[in-house]
Amino acid sequence: xxxxxxxxSLVVGGAIVAAIFIIAVxxxxxxxxxxxxxxxxxxxxxxxxxxILGTDNFGRDLWTRAAFGSRVSVVIALLxxxxxxxxxxxxxxxSGYFGGWVDLIIMRVVDIFLGFPALILAxxxxxxxxxxxxxxxxxxxxxxxxxxxxxxxxxxxxxxxREYVMAAQAIGASTPRILFHEIFPNTIGPVVVLATLxxxxxxVAESALSFLGFGVPPPTPTWGWTLSFGMRFxxxxxxxxxxxxFAIMITVLGFNLLxxxxxxxxxxxxVSGRERVRDAASEADAKVQGVS
Amino acid sequence: MLAYTVKRIxxxxxxxxxxxxxxxxxxxxxxxxxxxxxxxxxxxxxxxAEVRHExxxxxxxxxxxxxxxxxxxxxxxxDSFFQNEPVTRAIGARLGATIELAVASLVxxxxxxxxxxxxxxxxxxSIIDVVSMLFAQLGVSMPVFxxxxxxxxxxxxxxxxxxxxxxxxxxxxxxxxALSGRxxxxxxxxxxxxxxxxxxxxxxxxxISRLVRSSMLxxxxxxxIRTAYAKGLPPSAVVVSHALRNALLPVISVIGLRFxxxxxxxxxxxxxxxxxxxxxxxxTSISQRDIPLVQGVVLVFALMFTLVNLAVDLxxxxxxxxxxxx
Lengths: 292, 326
Fold this sequence. Notes:
The structure holds 2 protein chains of 2 kinds.
Chain A lengths: L1 H4 L2 H19 L35 H37 L1 H15 L3 H12 L3 H27 L3 H8 L4 H9 L4 H24 L11 H8 L8 H28 L4 H16 L6
Chain B lengths: L1 H27 L5 H6 L5 H11 L5 H13 L13 H36 L4 H15 L2 H15 L12 H9 L3 H38 L2 H8 L4 H39 L4 H11 L2 H29 L7
Helix pairs in contact in B: 1-4, 1-13, 5-6, 5-9, 5-11, 5-13, 6-9, 7-9, 7-11, 8-9, 9-11, 10-11, 11-12, 11-13, 12-13
């Protein structure tokens, strides 16, 4: 554990992420306003006394709306990454362990999903299902599960040839036991790194969908919608866009730093292990990180 | 090389068919009847039934799927519900703008990413390295739509240097105009392209710079680099023709993936900068629930992405012969 404190990415990222979670959970207690409470005397006010980050065109408090907006982003991110992780890991374990035609078919299906640019696939799903918290989460699950499947499969392919797996097979352990008790623990490190980076990606993706008007609909405050709505007021009060814009950026930065820090922290001494964690993370860099 | 090329191309075919099936399947899940969407709220049941028959929606699903696959392969993506034109024509009219934006931002991303990555790697641990990588970390965390708004605010609203929205003449036409003595046309096109391309490309530039840096650091430790120094080559020659050349391999494979990110980001960039491309078409068609057009746009995006990745894979095979024998 001591090593963790000497890793600035881990510390700073962890602090930002912790702050975001605290704001999301305790939003109503962190402000004196309701998210839809209007103050017509103070419309489009810049940051200052009374309204710490200013107000929008209806005089609604921007700090309050940003704090409540974090709830939508955090809930959708946790839900979509959590489910995608479970589905993807299970599929990856099965695909890698059984190999043969099972692996062939699963990987072809994964290829089909990866054939779509991520945001386009999410848009297509939302186009079909319509907006809302659950539908946006489903769209992101459809996009994200393949990452976990691919990374876990790659790990299983190398692990299943190791002695401890053969030993388990030799003493007659059941297949689910070998998969989940023997092999699965080796996938946790890379998957945790992927998921941490994935939470940042999910928040960008959710904001992007809201930005285009296909996310969680107003009057629920979301970062993405406020950001795009604020574009109309760039000349009068830039804070309308700037508050949610910085909120998204800092949150994503937090998850990215935490993910990078975890990658270094979890990096095992062995060469094969290092390759693995780095591969998982660089794949995340290459693909997951840029939904937008 | 031929065997590798053929194998790669054959592997793309099932993916493309799968993409078609997935797009078709997705649109089957749409709540509500396409015929009812097409006719609006006041339509009678008879009129809906008639339109369903005209659209062929009363046929069994496998027949509809077969028909969809066959007509897509012939390049017929049906007619838009609301644009009064074939889907292919609506897409064709906007495809160029999106490709222009994506290519411009890719060029920007590669140039900036290579520069920052190389500079950071050869100055490892110095202040230049730290600043470059801080910049990269910020760039990676910067959503394209937030950067787009910031750039609009600074360069279009506050400084009034560049136009906030719209597109000039297409770049090829603008170059032709410039060659025939009207450089203003090209300048106008470039001034419209600059902000969207930077907004869309910066995130990729940051990712590429991190990759180039780590890949360069690895290469710089190789024995053949020490050999190159030992035989007295100037440092610039070692860096460019020995280290960078090998460090580029992982970068090339990432460029294909980044292209997908750029295409997705183009939807957002086009919305911010009023860029008349496929992304705008995607947004309007989804808002109007114009199902054939949504299908067509999603399909074309997936097609572009898949083909670019195929091209990158083939290029990789040319550059690194080892990959062909895997």
